[in-house]
Write a structure and sequence with these properties.
The chain has one domain. A hairpin with a 6-residue loop joins β3 (about 150) and β4 (about 160). The chain is built from nine helices and four strands; from the N terminus they run ββααααααββααα. It is globular and about 55 Å long. It has helices at about 15-35, 40-65, 70, 75-80, 90-105, 110-135, 165-185, 195-210, 230-280, and strands spanning about 5, 10-15, 150, 160. The strands form two sheets. The chain has a two-stranded antiparallel sheet. Strands 3-4 form a two-stranded antiparallel sheet.
């Protein structure tokens, strides 16, 4: 793992910070590409983006501090000094970001459901870079494992899961799927807001799967050996996953079945075509 990417003596360039910059750059670029497909004003959307980033950062920090209140108390300096007292909640960042965007859209008379879908692919791409940064910097330590795919973290005993790397791969798949869904929405085969709800479902699915493979987990109450482990991320993910699964099944079951059958036919056709070509070559 490489926490410091470059040490110039008078300044240190941290690996995770570099990946955060890449996340912001590529996320912003893809958002710009998406917004060009709409009639929305680019300056208004990017104003909403910056407001969302500020709101997401504040709520993210607030959630982390509340869940670790025994360490922070009412000390405002500890809340502000993230470098000295690190810790953020990704769920808090997402909730705060979209809540800020919702109020911004309401204030500027922009329909939130029509805009939120175009933020999803950029958000997935940002998560990909963020998780890669966590992996290469060693800031998100995973649980021990005997699995052949593992890594050694500095300062931790034993081999560990590649959890952050796995998450980045799944978020990359989420970026691809959300981009495809955008065009389904534009063709009016799907309603506005579908991609936004898909993000909530998919993100909750990934986090509910990989939360148990992490060491630094957020707990609803300060964890001690005599208390039950109640992971904040796992509980929120489970509630979101169950709720949105029922929502999708009730409102979109016909489309999802049709889309799944169409995708299955395309895959089987390509596979059969590939084997057919091989058969001809061997004759």
């Amino acid at each position: 793992m490489l926490p410091v990417l470059l040490n110039l003596k008078f300044i240190k360039i941290y690996t995770f910070g570099v990946f955060l910059v890449l996340a912001f750059f590529w996320g912003g670029f893809i958002l710009w590409r998406n917004i060009r497909l709409t009639s929305q004003k680019e300056e208004e959307i990017f104003d909403g983006l910056f407001l969302s980033l500020a709101g997401g950062l504040f709520v993210s920090r607030a959630v982390f501090v509340i869940l670790n209140f025994d360490k922070f108390g009412f000390d405002l300096l500890k809340f502000i000094l993230i470098n000295g007292y690190p810790g953020l909640s990704l769920y808090g960042a997402i909730f705060g970001g979209f809540l800020s965007l919702y109020f911004y859209c309401g204030f500027n008379k922009i329909k939130f459901r029509q805009i939120a879908d175009y933020f999803i692919t950029p958000l997935f791409v940002s998560l990909v870079f963020g998780k890669l940064g966590s992996f290469f910097s060693g800031s998100e330590v995973a649980a021990k494992t005997n699995f052949f795919l593992s890594v050694k973290y500095i300062g931790y005993d034993g081999l560990r899961h590649l959890t952050a790397l796995y998450e980045s791969m799944f978020f990359l798949l989420g970026a691809y799927l959300s981009y495809r869904f955008i065009f389904e929405v534009r063709k009016e085969k799907l309603p506005n807001g579908f991609v936004f709800y898909f993000f909530g479902w998919y993100f909750a699915l990934i986090y509910s799967i990989f939360d148990r493979l992490k060491v630094s987990r957020l707990y609803l109450i300060p964890y001690t050996e005599d208390k039950l482990k109640l992971s904040f991320n796992f509980i929120v993910s489970s509630i979101l996953l169950l709720t949105l699964s029922l929502y999708f099944f009730y409102y979109f079951r016909d489309y999802l079945l049709t889309y799944g059958k169409r995708t299955y036919k395309k895959i089987t056709k390509k596979i059969s075509g590939a084997f057919g070509k091989r058969g001809k070559k061997t004759q």
